Amino acid sequence: MDAFAPETLAVAAAVAIAAGVIRGITGFGGAMVMAPPLALLLGPLAAVPVALLLEALAATPMLVQTRAFVRWRVIGPILVAGCLTIPLGTWLLVSADPVTMRRAIAATVIAFSLVLLAGWRYSAEPRPAASAGVGALCGALVGATGMGGPPAIVYLLAGPGAIETARANLTWFVGAISAAGLVALAVAGALSREALLLAAILAPGYYAGMVAGTRLFARFDDRGFRRFTLGFLAVVSLGILVA
To answer: How far apart are CA 225 and CA 209, in angstroms?
Structure first.
């Protein structure tokens, strides 16, 4: 399919707007919403770079808005460990079945999301060792499947703290891990001019969706935000599981 045909761009723009709304509400989720339909529409070699470009670059204003709420002691170990293990994931990508891996990840995320939706939380502060372990898993999954966010999302949402802090941590984690994924794609020669142009075309709609989602975020309380986010995560993971 011609990626720049009017009908293709119209569908892709609608997907980008919807992804932006989810990104604005939750602080993550843009790539999770975009990647599956864009992969069907454009193919995975175009879809994954476009999704990561929009997550890492077009979301910059949201990074500025949430920077005051970020807890670097929590997400710092996750980000460092994640960036270090992305090459391991890239190696796994060429030696393991990515479909099987994605489905296994999706099943795990569904299980943890349902447990958290049932009301389970932990009250202790996240420990650096546990955070680094989660980050290492996320980095490997980004390299292997392009879907490394869910373990960190579940981990960060399970702990204590205000919804502004959780959303800020998720925003910065997803932005940073997406940027690291782009570097890995560039090194592998998979970051094409077509992907860069498509991302530029879709960016305005993605921005508009984020603005709308950010305004909707103000309507959520702590419980409502976590239930919406975890419910969304479970639904997307279920779709990945059965696809």
So the answer is: 18
The string of pLDDT tens digits covering residues 50-98 is: 888 888 877 788 888 888 999 898 899 999 999 899 888 777 766 767 6
- Model-level pTM? 0.75
Q: Over the stretch 93-122, which tens digit does the pLDDT of each residue have? A: 667 676 676 666 667 667 766 776 676 666
- Provide the CA 160 distance to its chain's centre, in angstroms: 21
Identify the H or E element spanning 194.
helix 193-217
Write down the residue that tokens 């796994």 correspond to.
Answer: 92
Nearest to 27 by CA among 239, 237, 226: 226
Q: With CA atoms as reference, report the closest residue to 91 among 136, 131, 138, 142.
A: 142
Contacts with 53 (C-beta within 8 Å, 6 or more apart), sequence order: 182, 195, 196, 199
71 phi and psi, to 5 degrees?
-105, 95
